[in-house]
Amino acid sequence: MKWCGVMHPGPSLALAIIACFLQRYFCESRWDKEEGLKPRSETYGYKAFSGEGFVMQCNKPQSTGLCERLYNITASSEEADWSRAEGETNRDRDFLRDDGAVTGRGNALWFSTVTAKDSGKYTCHTGGMVIHFYVEVLERASLGCRDTEENRVTLVLGKGGRIPCPGIKCQTQRSEVTWYKDARPVCEIQEKRTISVVDRYTLLLGTVYVSDATLYFCDYTYEDNGIPWTVRRSVNVSVIPADTTDPPQITYPHGNKEGVELGEPHNLSCQVQFGFQRTFDPVVQWWISSHSNHEGMMKLMEMEAQQVRERSIEEFEFTVTRTAQIPEVTQLHLDSTFTCLAQNSVGNSSVTIRLIRKSAVSRVLVIVCPVVSLLFVAGLGITVHVYWLEISILYRIYLPYKQTPTDDKEYDAFVSYVPSSSSEEAGGRGRGVREEPLEVLLPRVLEGQWGYRLFLLERDLLPGGAYAEDVVCAIRSSRRLVCVLSPDYLASTCLFELETGIRALQQDPHLRLILIWTSPNPSSPSTTSPSTTSPKPSSPSHSTTSTTTLPLPPLVRRAIRVLPALHWTPQDQGRMITSSNSGSRFWRSLHKAMPAQSGTGTDT
């Protein structure tokens, strides 16, 4: 552009001025564009100390007095692109270590333990801006003054605590100290708890909590050669409980005797609970004292090493276990006493036990009891299997389902009987009282007086059908099966109806059986039917066998042993239930055993 200053006379001067103006315009526009492509950059410095934790975020260091986070933990790795300078031109972008010594946390670099080799220049690209950081890692001896503050502080749980910023006394140029608890500034925590900065550089905690056991950072800044430097120190805080004021407590053994077997090895175990002490030096020992020794001297036993188990910091206690071995128990051991002694700096405690010989009976019981239990369970299973029929019938009888008149049953009762011979007169013939058989009275009373719907085989069985199928269907459609048992009945084919009812009782919880005995001696009807019964005419649907002895089917014989029954006598004939007569015991029991009718509630 030197020629732009040359003067030309006449029109040439005008052209020269225009050319100079255009050239300058284009040159400046190009320079402005190039400057626009060039990102803005800033430079800062950090001083850290070897052996401490260190963190720096991809942003300018916090200014004094601002309550901002130390770094953004929620930022993604794309928001902060870190690199480390290697010489003048090379950039190392893979300097993050796999061992976790240098890692990325949000938009920050985290050094678990910074060392001298971490000194150097770091560059961070974020949001169109480049930030250069000079990190200088110093040794504690380089402070040039005596620094009594450590970067490790131990606080007592529940009490107040002080956390000084280490090395700040050795700095002549410094600003106010800014404190961080992990990434949170202390000014943010002050809203929820008592915490403050005293003496310009010491953090004061009003009450120490378990959550205070973490890493704290303290920052102060100064400027050197135009570069703002931030000195960042870390303090590793641990929290411990207050020292106990109680002696140790022995939790095992509980009693004063312990069973052993002669000739067998035995271990004596002592479990002791110690409270926390900063200088923890527990003592647990086993001592033996023989009664045969008149001097009563106690001797230390051979023991295994102490086993220490630690609890949480809220219940900071130690459980110490110490075991002594007896290679072979002898009579001398039975005549001795064994003492477990536990001691700490507060006091001591002890427990004394004696060894007693285990009874031989106990070994027998250990063997016999399982065998007896096994035999009992096996016997119980066999008994249930053998008597399962009786058990299931009793269950249906005494724990029946409640019934209502609106169920799906068509009949209230199926009446099973064998028609008797022609009517006989009752005891006093001179009085002219005619005795009617029960199978005639039952339909008259149950249907005529009580209003039940009955199924009578001779009346309701359709002709031409299959007898067995119709009987099974009718019984399943009934709420009750009423069987009039007589010698003729037990010797007839009516046993099929009773047997069908017993099988239906096991499957249908709503069915119940009502047995009525009419024989003069019904106490043993389950063996055989009588052989001396006179012949009686058979109905079209029932046949009787009166001249031979027929054994009852096993199912019927077992069922009638447990089924409850009513007993009919001729005296019950004229004692039916009426409005003015409560009736005999037979009729009352029969009425109670019948199902409920509409308006009478549920069955019992």
Word description of this protein:
- With 604 residues, the chain is an alpha+beta fold.
- The protein folds into four domains: 36-240, Sandwich (Immunoglobulin-like); 249-358, Immunoglobulin-like, CATH 2.60.40; 362-386; 400-593, Toll/interleukin-1 receptor homology (TIR) domain (Rossmann fold).
- Helix content is 22%, strand content 31%.
- Strands 1, 3, 4, 7, 8, 9, 11, 12, 15 and 16 form a ten-stranded mixed sheet that branches.
- A hairpin with a 3-residue loop joins strand 13 (195-198) and strand 14 (202-205).
- Helix 5 (388-398) packs across helix 11 (554-562) and helix 8 (467-476) crosses helix 10 (495-507).
- It is elongated, with a radius of gyration of 53 Å.
- The protein starts with 10 loop residues before the first helix and ends in an 11-residue tail after the last helix.
Short description, anyone?
The protein is of the alpha+beta class and 604 residues long.
Tell me the count of domains. Answer: 4
**Tally of helical segments:** 12
CATH top level of the largest domain is: Mainly Beta
> Into which percentage range does the β-strand content fall?
25-35%
The helix/strand class is alpha+beta
Overall mean confidence score, pLDDT: 79
**Topology, number of strands:** 32
Ranges where pLDDT stays below 50 over 5 or more residues in a row are 1-9, 25-37, 422-432, 521-549, 600-604
What is the end-to-end distance?
A: 123 Å
Biggest beta sheet attributes: 10 strands, mixed
Secondary-structure arrangement, i.e. CATH architecture of the largest domain: Sandwich
Q: Provide the CATH topology of the largest domain.
A: Immunoglobulin-like
**CATH superfamily label of the largest domain:** Immunoglobulins
Q: Radius of gyration from the CA trace?
A: 53 Å
The gross shape turns out to be elongated
Query: Helical percent range?
Result: 10-25%
